[in-house]
Amino acid sequence: MQLSEALARTHITRLTEFTCLADVLEPELIQSCLDSQGVATLRRRKLPMDAMIWAVIGMALFRGESVRSLINKLDIVLPQEIDYVARSAVTQARKRLGSEVIREVFSRSANTWHARAEHPHWCGLNLYGVDGVVWRTPDSVQNQAAFARTANASGEAAYPQIRMVCLMELSSHLLVNSAFDSVAENEMNLASQLIPSIPNHSLTLFDRGFYSLGLLHAWQQAQPDSHWLLPLKKGTQYEVVRTLGKHDQWVKLTTTPQARKKWPQLPDTLEARLLTKTVKGKSVAILTSLTDPMRYPSEDIVDLYAHRWEIELGYREMKQHLLESRFTLRSQLPELVTQELWGVLLAYNLIRYKMLLMAKSLSSVHPNQLSFRDAASYIIFKLTQLPSQTPGNVPRDVLDIERNARQFKLDGKRERAYPRVLKMSKNKYPVRPKKNAVHS
Questions:
Q1: Dihedral (Cα; 194, 195, 196, 198), 10-degree rounding
Q2: Which of 145, 176, 336, 341 could hold 167 in an S-S bridge, CB 3.0 to 4.6 Å?
Q3: What is the fold, at CATH topology level, of the domain defined by 103-314?
Q4: pLDDT digits (tens, 9 = 90+) for 324-357
Q5: How do residues 60-107 score in pLDDT, each as one tens digit?
Q6: Cβ(345)–Cβ(165) under 8 Å?
Q7: Are 113 and 349 in contact (CB under 8 A)?
Q8: How many other β-carbons are positioned within 10 Å of the β-carbon of residue 363?
Q9: What is the pTM of this model?
Q10: Burial label, 405 (beta-carbon count in 10 A; 0-12, 13-18, 19+)
C-alpha cells in the first residue's frame, strides 16, 4: 500500500453535502438526465451515478482539492466496510458517467433558470453576448492526439488547447449554451452551433471577429424577434440605401459566392443599419439588424456595445476566481476533459443563479453588480458549514445567503485619474524608444 493511500484511509472528513443545493438543482432533473442518456447504477456501487454528477461539479467548486481527495471528502460515497475510494475507481466512475449527462444537466438547468430569471430588457429585448475563450489541457498523449495547440513564430504552445464559444445573458452572466472543440476549430463555426439556443426577443452582441454575413443572417432568422449587433469591420464594403438621420444609415451588404455555398439560405444581399458616434475622440461604427428607427432609437444603440464586456468578465470569473487561476484542467483523457468543462460551466451557472436570487432581494440591483469573487466564496463557505448544522438551522442558513447580499454590491467604477501609458519592458539589448513610454 502506498503511503498516500494509507494517509487517505486514516484521514477522511466530509467536506460538504450537496443535498443542500437541491433547491437550485433538483434531484428529479438529475435523474431524468441520467435516464435519458441510458446511464444508471444497476448494482450497488460505492460511487452511484447521481452522486458522481455532484463530484464533477465539486471539481470546479473546490479547485484546491485533488480529485481523489475530493471524492473521499464529499458525502457521496455509499458506506461499506472501508470508507475509501481508489484513484482508478474514480476514473472508471467518471468514464461510466460520460460527458453527455453533464451537458444535458447544464442545458436543462439553464433553460429552467432563465425562465425563472425575469431578465431586464431594452426596448423589449434581452441582451446577450457571444465570445470565445481558450482552455488548456494536461499534456497527456491522449490529449495531444485530440486537441491542437496554438503556434506563433516562437513555436507551439506548451499544452493542448480547447476553443470554447459561449452564449451568455449579460445582466446575470447566466450561460445559455456553449460549444467547444480543439483550438484548431474556428470561432464562427462554434458560434453557428449555438443558433438553435437563441432566445426570442433577444439582441446578441458580437465583437468584430464574428463578422460573417452567413452567421449573422442565420442568427437573425433563428427566431421571429432575434437581432445582432457588432462593430463594423475595417474595409467592409456597403451601399447606402437611405439616410435615417444624422450618423444613421440604412445600408446594403453584398454576400460572396463562398458564403452562399456555406450558408444555402443566405440571399445575395443583406440590409442592416449603420450607426456612427464619436466616443472619447474616436469614431465608432456599429452594424446591427435593428432597422426600425422608431422602435430602436439611435442614441442608445451605439452605447449598448459597451455591455459586451460583461462576457469577458464572465470568463475571468470562471478562470481566475472559480478555478483559482489554475488554468490547466485536471483530466488526462479527452472524454473526461469534455466532462470537466461541462462541469465548470454548470458550477458557474449554479453560483450565478444563486447570485441572481441574491440580487432579487435587493432593490434596483442586477446580478452583475454583485462581486462574483466575494459572493462565490461566501456561498461555498456556507455550503461547507451546512453538514455541521442541526437540521432545523439549515433552512435559516440557506436563506441567510440571500439576506447578506447587500455586502457583495460593487461600488461604481471610478474615472481613470491618469491616461494609459506604455511601460517599456526591461531589455539588456538596445531598443528603439517608444512614444509615451514610461521609463523606470
A1: 90
A2: 176
A3: Transposase Inhibitor Protein From Tn5; Chain A, domain 1 (3.90.350)
A4: 999 999 999 999 999 999 999 999 999 999 899 8
A5: 988 888 877 777 666 554 444 445 667 777 888 889 888 999 999 999
A6: no
A7: yes
A8: 6
A9: 0.85
A10: buried
